[in-house]
Fold this protein.
Amino acid sequence: MQKSQNKLFAYKLVYKRIHTAILEGVLKPGERIPSARALAKEMGLSRGSVEEGYALLKSEGFIEAKGQAGTRVSQNLIEQPKPSLNEVTVRQPGFTTDLQTTDILPFQLGIPALDAFPFKTWARMAARNARNTAIDNLTYPSVYGLPELRLAIAQYLNLYRGVQCQPTQVFITSGYVNSIKWITKALLSPDDKVGVEDPGYPLTKLILENERLTPAFVPVDGSGVTIPKEREIKALVVTPAHQSPTCVSLSLQRRQMLLDWAAGNDSWIIEDDYDGEYRHTGLPLPALKSLDTQDRVIYSGTFSKVLFPNLRTAYIVVPQNLVSRFEQLSDLYAGNVAGLTQLCIFNFMQEGHFTRHIQRMRKLYRKRREFAAKLFAQYLGNNLSIEPQPGGMHMILKFNDPSCNDVEIANKLLHEGLYSQALSQWSSKKTHPGLILSFTNIKTEEECTALILRLKALL
Amino acid sequence: MQKSQNKLFAYKLVYKRIHTAILEGVLKPGERIPSARALAKEMGLSRGSVEEGYALLKSEGFIEAKGQAGTRVSQNLIEQPKPSLNEVTVRQPGFTTDLQTTDILPFQLGIPALDAFPFKTWARMAARNARNTAIDNLTYPSVYGLPELRLAIAQYLNLYRGVQCQPTQVFITSGYVNSIKWITKALLSPDDKVGVEDPGYPLTKLILENERLTPAFVPVDGSGVTIPKEREIKALVVTPAHQSPTCVSLSLQRRQMLLDWAAGNDSWIIEDDYDGEYRHTGLPLPALKSLDTQDRVIYSGTFSKVLFPNLRTAYIVVPQNLVSRFEQLSDLYAGNVAGLTQLCIFNFMQEGHFTRHIQRMRKLYRKRREFAAKLFAQYLGNNLSIEPQPGGMHMILKFNDPSCNDVEIANKLLHEGLYSQALSQWSSKKTHPGLILSFTNIKTEEECTALILRLKALL
């Protein structure tokens, strides 16, 4: 009974499935629909029923047979798909949902100089790896990360960042959020107090709150983050190379004090070394982790800045005596980065492109920052002053008028297609108004001048 | 003063950095070390100081100049790197840490038939995408997922799984763990009770506990999961296509009862459709989500089974009225899958390889399951009986002797290189002992017979 009824109305089921998909705009004019044979198998119906359903759709003009090209949604449908359903939402991290774009905006933070990335070298290498896909590359990658990549990262950190570590101490993650979640889960308990820099990167506080930890603001001064006064702070997230956003480097004396504090207080230091490679003046600074003789520092690195963000690949380095604790959580916190992605990064490092690229970028960013600072001073010197900075990938423009509302200005700029972040939104206290913006993708003085004039017109 | 002191001992810093990396086994014999010029820049030292350090390392035999090939760690080092440091740990998900391997073991669960994957087609397509890398592919991918891929998944689900959804309802994740974390964070509160199937996939319970939710066991019978009796259950994670591990399909009547329960109790159903495509007998079943007229079902799909696990790519489909709630959490829960990976999956779907591959695999699994069941019965019929199953990618072998200790047997098999999981470890209650094992990668009857004889010798 059930079966014969099924058969009786089977063509209607077919009709409904295709018809709905077209009306809802999921299937668009010109797009191919399954062959009657394939759909019959999928739906467990006879081919005849599917053909009957298709015939009805054809007679109503929804689909048309295109010979070799298969059956397709008609090009000249009277009903147009609803426009709102026609769009697929896109959003980059850090943007509010009401501004959706895949394009990079001028001054956008956190994006390396994409025009200077050796993407032909990368593309050739990635294509070679992809072509060599074999059965071995199809199964689960190691939950800790590709062994060769962990070794290459350990070598890089030992030689170039002064961080003594074994490859087993390196774990691959899918970005900063993943890194911080894994670290805090391994080391902290619910409701623990975790120090964050003030001013500081707003996302860090969000992640901690979401993990049900209690963020505590720790002030930043001219030597970087200060030593926490509250004894209950169990961990402190710091950006020693160029403090985010002030770009101050943590002084050597302060580094030592911080390590002593962590050892004495039995607390952890989470070193976010997001752009430590890029220093414009003075000596390069090794990572804070390189001074960590008492195993209190967990190092967080990323390929988003030194390669490119589309990779979604980062890593953490944990002290030797914590390796097994991090391994135990790997099923629940592993970065889950596709093997091909990890292999490409490994090859790029192995063949020497990685360190060469960093050296080139260091020069380029120095140059781009220099002309940007010069031109901003020249055109906007009456409104804004530019903080001198030893390194990093962004600039801070402080308004000369302390009563400016930097949040309003940043919003206004964003709606005119210019990116910036309001300094006051990175701080817990009332702060001198300013804008944080990136110079990394400004290629020429002419481009920079044009952008500054656009910005000036909006102030 | 500081500076002259630095200069005085600079060569020692260079010596120490390289020397330590060699002694610790991070730099291995034959591996290249940075040029004196590059290291001088990185460490902020004069080139002379680095050359002095290198000279000392050479005189002690640690490094040697190799002309064009650069300076390298000596091949004939007297000190050998410590063996334990020489290894980089690898582990697949689901393995205990004391069994570390990158190889797939016979009977290993959750791995599709890798020999039958069209990897030449895949490799060609992936290579083409990699070669076409351009500036546009370097920036952050949309936090929701690649728009084209979300659309392709929506089309696939509408046409082939009967799930009516818009592309905006589809979010890309980096696997099942990521999916469950995002869903539970969006819909549940701390300590909420969440139903899990009993017997059921052990990882689900682990994820929920780790997210500080309270798992509650809900019994499975011959029609699939039963209707929860506890009113406080706020969500239920189910595997309707082939219950994991029993492979029972949730009956149509039970599906309706479950949806009614969810609507009446204001609870959520999380449908884990991990292998819904693979049904061996009877009619294909559309997803439970296809009956969800009251928006209570969140659908969780994955590419690990229908393509391959190395991709680390999965997705969720959420009801229309929950889209913005999931979007709001995307910065903290986005899958962070590299753009190239998403583009490859999209192309594979777009060009029709995806549905063709699924159809081929359905036939292949039916065949492989049939001969495996036949041969197991033939050789092990006295010890074991095989449950008939309508679909899925694994078999259940029940021991005829109810006093068998399946955990001990599974451990013994694993140490002899044969994978299986003990049925009793997937259940909260004392259960009839059995083994869960996969047949997907057993290519021939001969191979199957050889494996069964190896297994038989260990029982």
Chain B touches chain A through 111 residues (CB under 8 Å). The domain at 88-116+362-458 of chain B is CATH 3.90.1150.10 (Aspartate Aminotransferase, domain 1). The mean pLDDT of chain B is 90.
